[in-house]
Structure formats: structure tokens, C-alpha cells
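Data availability (excerpt). The following record was deposited with the supplementary files.
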Amino acid sequence: EVQLVESGGGLVQAGGSLRLSCAASGFTFDDDVIGWFRQAPGKEREGLSCINNSDGSTYYADSVKGRFTISRDNAKNTVYLQMNNLKPEDTAVYYCAADLVFRVSCSIVVETTYYGMDYWGKGTLVTVSS
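Predicted structure:
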């Protein structure tokens, strides 16, 4: 059974940092695509970042480019999202998701907030205080 479990969320002051983890089970990183998304209260889900595990390529939304970094640890089957210089508008529930079947390009995953990802985690809450 494929599962994705996010962790690392919490309360942080503006300008601070958090590192989110997405632990995957039921499959091993090979040629899958992992994306990070977020949904703020009253807003639509937003694609943030993506990593293609077949070649390690990454992609970022303009809203987080330069502040967030996606990475992976194949030994731990975990994808991370390092978030720096956090802003109050970054407050949201953050989700990771996996595309194991169609392996849509990361640009599509992020730019279209691709709802066709095969598996989604339950999310972790990030709150940034001003």
C-alpha cells in the first residue's frame, strides 16, 4: 500500500525556517514524480515545487523560488521541502503527492496544481506569525 506522510509543520515567526518531510512507503524512488502543494484557508490549493526522481530535476513556483528548496534522500525514501524566510502568507496546510503512473512533468505539476497525482498525504500545518 502506497502511503505518503508529511511532517515538520508548526508555528514559526516571519523570517524563520522549517523543513517539511514527506516519507513515502509502498514504493521506492525510481522514475516517479513528487510534488509539494499547499492550501491556505479560504484559498485554492497551490502547486509549490516538484522533483522528478528519475533524473533529480526540480521545479518551483515563482511564489517560493529562492526561498524553498526541494530535495530527496533515496535511502530514507523521503522528500524534503526546506522553507526559508517564511512569510505570514505562507501559512497553509502543506501536502506532498506522488505521480507513479503518468509521470507528468514537474512544470505541469506545479503550474497547474496537478490534481491527477496518484497519491496524496494528509498534510501538515504551517503557521507563520508576523
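Summary of structural features: The chain has a mean pLDDT of 95.
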